[in-house]
Design goal:
Blueprint lengths: L2 E21 L6 E6 L3 E6 L11 E22 L16 E5 L4 E5 L8 E11 L5 E3 L2 E5 L8 E2 L3 E3 L4 E10 L3 E8 L7 E8 L9 E5 L3 E7 L18 E7 L1 E11 L3 E8 L2 E2 L5 E2 L4 E5 L2 E4 L10 E4 L1 E2 L6 E3 L5 E9 L6 E10 L5 E14 L7 E4 L4 H7 L4 H17 L14 E6 L5 E2 L3 E3 L9 E6 L8 E3 L3 E2 L5 E9 L5 E9 L11 E6 L5 E6 L9 E7 L11 E12 L4 E5 L9 E6 L1 H14 L4 E2 L9 E3 L2 E3 L1 E2 L2 E2 L3 H21 L5 E4 L9 H14 L4 E4 L13 E2 L8 H9 L3 E5 L19 H11 L4 E4 L23 E3 L13 E4 L9 H4 L13 E2 H25 L6 H10 L7 E3 L2 E2 L4 H18 L2
Parallel strand pairs: 17-29, 30-54, 45-50, 50-51, 51-52, 52-53, 53-54
Antiparallel strand pairs: 1-2, 1-3, 1-4, 5-14, 6-7, 7-12, 8-11, 9-10, 9-13, 13-14, 15-16, 16-18, 18-27, 19-26, 19-28, 20-21, 22-27, 23-24, 25-57, 28-29, 31-44, 32-35, 33-34, 34-42, 35-41, 36-41, 37-40, 37-42, 38-39, 38-41, 42-43, 46-47, 48-49, 55-56, 58-59
Helix pairs in contact: 4-5, 7-9, 9-10, 9-11
Length: 933
């Protein structure tokens, strides 16, 4: 540091004076400023303090003082590049419980209080001319067998003498502790120091596997957030231990804590040998680095300001590790399907470039059963491919498809189904009239204003926010010969310019950008005729579509107006008609919805076979309103407004066609329609109208709603999905008894004290949530996003780096103003990370590296697999009920009940993985035993 300033603010003052001192060495102090009222102090530190690596501050009172300091800001000029993340600090203060006017007491700076041994230095001055006898003592609360009090030697403090007392304090573990310090002897002086140690600093788990003069290697179960600072465990073990079924992935943590800086660190796993000639190849063991994210803004009271591990990037180069800091590694073992039961052993070898190496045993117990490829618990997780596209920057369609496949594989590896298993391949449908074309857009057939016949097409553009365009749904084949067109048109106003433009498409049905041919027609308020030849077709054009607009094209589409069109004809010079449309009324029976499922079917079939997804979100049209007429919100379908016979006839035909196609493909039971999100009470009538349309057209297709069960909604959804903390648990069985399904979700809420999804919450939270899902007979889980990395209204000129900015910032929903920072919570909607190279890039080249998993995605996978253990055990119990003794049946039923040690209720549950792993192992062994019966 070469210079620095200090700013602080006193927001409450009743009496007395605040004194602010600074020191370059913690021994000689300089008073910077004083303040005896509310207000601020803003000072530049003396030049004599610099250059410096450490600056000390102390705030103390002069006389009887009562005030509050609510802001302290230290700013310094540093050597080198700016810090990548903010510095971490803690504030400790001593609250005087009793004071002795004969003594001047000054606490020296207190080091960060973590579990373990500490010293608190207290400077004591005898202000009198008489000796004073002191005998300091400490006590720690809450008191238990781990909190040992201390009594120091008796000290005779001479008149005017100053002495420094080094008070030893041992804090047993994470938690809220109070250190009571009494100077004792002739003085009643006593202080209380509060030490709030976050749960991430817990030291009551893990076991040392090996230690030498270079490093300590220790193990921790998956489900702990290993702090960078915590000391090595006291317990000892001989191996890293994992238990898993065949066709299951499970992990354990290997923590390396060097005593000196290490360079060029590598890790490698051997094959694991098992019973007989069976083995697990080394490729079944994957070792990932745990990335420490700096949490600047804690999510809530469970949250933490400091470094928390979450992302699990691959180790693609040797690592350099700092002394006295933990570096955990995620050791993940995927047991192949069909692996025989038994214990498999191997080693993990760690070494550095200087020649140091250490080997630790790895032991995997394989249960005697396989998990299925497709899980029973239904899952629905949002995946927006546009986020990965922005970070990876694929160059073409092939690379975009490769990236979607890679992220789908990451989802599949964790048993998570995306909303849409075919995001790049939509189905198509057309609304056809017999011997007519299919059109889409806002146009309506008008029987009062027409060129001839019974009707014409009327298009109204009544908004300045966009253009009103009515277009052919089909892309019509282009003839080899040149085309000409003719049409009748009428504008509502004289001088109004309406238009038609022709769009062209290549052999892959992709629009040829910038190749449109536009034709403007100036109206006089009466029917007029337009006829013209098309220019030469664009190169590579194979088909075309026609678009009618009541106004000429403008960039913003701000103009408004009305126009009519009739007798549209495209033909070649020899009179061969290519497109003929007279916009005449049709009988209901002449209207039909025609589907093209080709691309969608192929993509869904591939996703279900390759990735084993178990749900499909079906996107349907005309449930939402398109217009508002006389205060009523109406949908539009095929150019017909809701309430007309044509709308009802066509929309039911459309929905029925979707339902029956899903039934034919065998996908109906896994499909659902998620069309409205988190309605307010005012939305209920509108939502029920949409659900009514869905029920009438496709009664066997699940109607999904993210809302708790309310009387006004009964009869609407048949797949309920409330947020977890608003779920009235008694309604789950009620709706299931009525033949309906029940899921739940978590997102930006709930927060503490519920089990939820945030990076800085206990790592077990998501796994516990899945046990609660089994506990309360919930059939599925949903989370709104998996790759929400970038908040566009905050990061306009560059992409957010989710490794450094851990917060998921609120976007949209109207309540967030541009530039406003409104936190949803750390890691919300973010279970996978982009590769590190995509956020540290200096170029714009495509990057096709694999997505990066997270500890939270691993906890989701483990919880879903735990749920499947329970499903398998329950099924075997029912299948083998006739060969089970009452005692065996009672034991199995007890295993299928979630114990209070895992989850007592929605807000009281374990933060430790130990009871989860214990119950899971019991279930795994019970399944193995039942399969032998």
């Amino acid at each position: 540091m070469h210079s620095a300033t200090l700013e602080l603010y006193v927001n409450y003052h009743s009496r007395g004076k605040l004194v602010v001192d600074a020191s370059p060495n913690g021994q000689s102090w300089t008073t910077l400023d004083t303040l005896d009222s509310t207000g601020s102090i803003n000072v530049t530190l003396p030049k004599s303090f610099f250059p410096a690596t450490t600056i000390y501050f102390r705030f103390h009172a002069e006389g009887a003082t009562y005030l509050q300091v609510n802001r302290v800001c230290y700013t310094a000029q540093l050597d080198g590049a700016p810090l990548a993340v903010p510095a971490i600090g803690q504030t400790h203060f001593a609250l005087a419980e009793a004071e002795d006017a004969r003594l001047a007491v000054q606490f020296l700076p207190i080091t960060p209080l973590l579990p373990g041994k500490h010293e608190i230095a207290v400077q004591v001055t005898n202000k009198t001319n008489q000796p004073l006898r002191l005998q300091p003592t400490t006590a720690i609360e809450p008191a238990d067998v781990r909190t040992v009090g201390w009594q120091g030697d008796e000290l005779l403090l001479k008149p005017r003498q100053t002495a420094t007392l080094n008070i030893p304090v041992t804090l047993p573990d994470a938690g809220d502790w109070q250190i009571h310090l009494a100077l004792g002897g002739d003085s009643a002086t006593a202080y209380t120091i509060e030490a709030k140690i976050h749960e991430i600093q817990r030291i009551d788990y893990g076991a040392v596997l090996r230690e030498d003069e270079t490093a300590v290697l220790w193990s921790a179960e998956a489900g702990w957030h290993v702090s960078r600072e915590r000391i090595a465990p006291i317990a000892r073990d001989s191996a890293l231990r994992i238990q898993a079924a065949a066709n299951e992935a499970e992990a354990v943590q290997l923590v390396l804590r060097p005593d000196r800086d290490l360079t060029g660190v590598t890790l490698a796993a051997s094959a694991l040998t098992g019973p007989g000639n069976s083995a697990l190849p080394a490729e079944c063991v994957e070792i990932l680095r745990e990335y420490y994210h700096y949490i600047e803004l804690p999510t809530d009271g469970y949250g933490y300001q400091g470094y928390v591990p979450d992302a699990l990037p691959p180790i693609d180069a040797p690592l350099d590790l700092a002394a006295d800091q933990n570096q955990p590694f995620w050791v993940r073992v995927k047991v192949p399907a069909g692996t025989p039961a038994g214990t498999y052993t191997g080693t993990i070898t760690v070494q550095d470039a200087a020649g140091w190496s250490a080997a630790v045993p790895l032991e995997v117990e394989v249960f005697g059963f396989d998990l299925p490829d497709r899980m029973t618990l239904e899952t629905a997780f949002g995946f927006n491919q546009n986020q990965p596209f922005r970070y990876h920057q694929p160059a073409d369609e092939a690379q975009r498809r490769q990236l979607v496949d890679q992220y789908f594989q990451a989802l599949a590896d964790h048993h998570l189904s995306p909303y849409d298993p075919a995001p790049l391949d939509r189905w198509r449908y057309e609304i056809r009239r017999k011997n007519g074309l299919a059109w889409q857009g806002p146009g309506q057939l008008d029987t009062t204003t027409k060129s001839h016949g019974e009707s014409s097409l009327k298009i109204i553009d009544d908004t300045d926010a966009a253009r009103a365009i009515h277009a052919t749904q089909q892309h019509l084949p282009l003839p080899d010969a040149p085309m000409q067109f003719s049409l009748q048109y009428r504008t509502a106003e004289a001088g109004q310019v309406c238009s038609m433009y022709v769009m062209f498409y290549d052999a892959d049905d992709q629009w040829l950008t910038g190749k449109n041919q536009t034709f403007d027609f100036t109206g006089d308020g009466s029917w007029q005729t337009a006829a013209q030849k098309l220019a030469a077709y664009p190169e590579n054009a194979r088909s075309f579509s026609v678009n009618l607009n009541p106004l000429t094209w403008t960039k913003g589409g701000q103009a408004t107006g009305t126009a009519w069109f009739d007798d549209l004809l495209f033909q070649t010079a020899d009179g061969t008609a290519v497109l003929a449309e007279d916009f005449e009324l049709a009988k209901l029976e002449d209207l039909q919805v025609v589907f093209d499922w080709t691309r969608w079917d192929a993509a869904v079939e591939r996703s279900l076979a390759k990735f084993h997804f178990n749900t499909i979100d079906i996107s349907v049209d005309a449930l939402h309103s398109a217009v508002e007429i006389d205060g009523k919100k109406l949908a539009r379908f095929g150019g017909y407004l809701e309430g007309t016979p044509e709308f009802t006839y066509l929309h039911r035909q459309y929905l029925h066609g979707i339902q029956e196609h899903l039934r034919e493909k065998g996908w109906l039971d896994m499909s659902y329609v998620y069309w409205f999100d988190e309605p307010t009470e005012e939305d209920y009538p509108y939502v029920m109208n949409g659900l009514r349309k869905l029920r009438e057209g496709a009664p066997d297709l699940r109607r999904f709603l993210t809302e708790q069960v309310e009387p006004e909604l009964i009869g609407g959804p048949n797949l309920w999905c409330p947020v977890s903390y608003k779920t009235v648990l008694s309604t789950i069985a009620e709706r299931q008894a009525a033949g309906e399904d029940f899921w739940w979700y978590v997102c930006t809420g709930p927060k503490m004290p519920y089990a939820t999804l945030f990076t800085d919450h206990p790592a077990t939270n998501l796994r516990v949530w899945l046990w609660q899902t089994w506990q309360h007979h919930v059939q599925g889980v949903l989370i709104w996003a998996t790759t929400y990395w970038n908040c566009e209204h905050l990061y306009k000129d560059q992409l957010q780096n989710p490794y450094l900015d851990t917060m998921s910032w609120a976007a949209g929903y109207n309540f967030v103003k541009p530039g406003q920072r409104s936190p949803w919570g750390n890691g919300d909607g973010r279970f996978f990370y982009p590769p590190l190279a995509t956020v540290n890039r200096t170029d714009d080249q495509p990057n096709l590296e694999l997505p990066v998993d997270s500890i939270r995605s691993e906890m989701l996978r483990d919880g879903i697999e735990d749920y499947e253990y329970c499903v398998i055990l329950q099924r075997l119990r029912d299948e083998k009920a006739d060969v089970l003794t009452p005692a065996e049946l009672s034991r199995i039923n007890a295993l299928l009940t979630v114990p209070p040690q895992i989850s007592q209720d929605m807000t009281h549950f374990t933060h430790s993985p130990e009871p989860i792993l214990k119950r899971r192992a019991e279930i795994g062994r019970a399944i193995t035993e039942l399969l032998r019966k």
